[in-house]
Amino acid sequence: MTPGQILAAILLAMAISAGGTWQVQDWRMGKRLAEQAGLHQGQLGRISAVAIKQLRDEQDRRLGLEKTLATTDQQHTRELSDAQRNQARLLDRLATTNLRLSVLLDATDSASGCNVPAASGAVGVVHAARRAQLDPAHAQRIIAITDAGDQGLIALRACQAYVRAIAP
């Protein structure tokens, strides 16, 4: 064997040895990458499960709030409807003279100049107090004003209930 052939044989042996080492290192690196990919998949699965649970909890909370708000809305709508019905009934009674509104007069006020008899009739509510009946048109305006106030109070209660329901 010539020195060149010996050198070629040595280089060939070194190349084969190095190639085997590279293959072993590639195999080990592949194994590590596969393990890391498996761990990563497990972490992603746990994160997804937590996210799905949070989403379900949020949806349940939203549905509960919607149910509560719907019930509250129905209650306030019923209250408003009852108030409007009562107001319409009262206005009808005023219009048909089934009902008369009256006001108490101050018996000590001599400047009023109103000569209303002091004795109350059989229907009197206040103990012998002086009273004066209101004109039906004025009575209807007073009822309309109180109805608007009632509707405002009902709307205010509905708004307050809504804010309480949505604010934790």
Task: Describe, in plain words, how this protein is organized in 3D.
The chain is mostly helical. Helices cover 74% and strands 4% of the residues. The chain has two domains: 1-30; 57-107 and 127-168. Strands 1-2 form a two-stranded antiparallel sheet. The mean pLDDT is 79.
Highlighted features:
168 residues; mainly alpha; two-stranded antiparallel ribbon
Question: Span from first to last CA?
Answer: 92 Å
Mean pLDDT, nearest integer? 79
SS field, number of helical segments: 2
Detail the poorly predicted runs.
none
C-alpha Rg (nearest Å) = 46 Å
Give the SSE map:
Elements: H1 3-95, E1 102-104, E2 131-133, H2 136-166
Antiparallel strand pairs: 1-2
Short overview:
This protein has 168 residues and is mainly alpha-helical. It has helices at residues 3-95, 136-166, and strands at 102-104, 131-133.
